[in-house]
From TrEMBL:
This is Response regulator transcription factor. Keywords: DNA-binding, Phosphoprotein, Plasmid. It comes from Paracoccus methylovorus. SUPFAM superfamilies: CheY-like (SSF52172). It comes from the Bacteria. The modification 4-aspartylphosphate is found at D51.
Amino acid sequence: MRVLVVEDDSRIAKDLECALSAAGFRIEHSDNGEDAWFRGGTEAYDLIVLDLGLPRMDGLSVLKRWRREGCDCPVLIMTARGAWTERVEGIDAGADDYLPKPFRMEELVARVRALVRRAGGRGSARQRIGRLSVDLNRMTVDVDGIPVALTPLEFRLIAYLALHRDRVVPPTELLEHLYGDNDAREANALEAVITRIRRKLGSGIITTRRGFGYGLDATE
């Protein structure tokens, strides 16, 4: 899953990137409000972590513009501003969660995971789809109870399909959510990843609807 971290403090941004990358997320970083507003309005993210004290445009203004312009990506606000009135203002502006600084990275990762699950309509971290079981917290996959070793990229792909298992996911959407700005987003590369995963999971787990995209087989 693809996450945009909006934070102007380079040390905090690096810590966030390390923690969220280790939790299986693909991270991109913005250090000012204008750039964040543009990225959030033009790119597809699964979640945005937004600091309020930003240069060039404050985080609350960025959030209000996103919502006014139709950006419905889940947003987790983090800020050193601790007054309850500011938290209420952030939630009313369209934030999905609010985490005051200082905080534990473990709590931020847990909140990010929960927001991504809820955005996909899933309450549990463990998703079972037919013979496949995906644990979004432990980042594990098994088929018929047998663990399957996947690379981080392969796991992200399976996790995304699991969170959106009620529909066929187009290749362009998978490419947007699996890869960052600096990665080559090519359909051939995506097909190669899916071929590798199919070898590991066995036939029939990942389904293809020609001309539409990919899904997961829910047959027990």
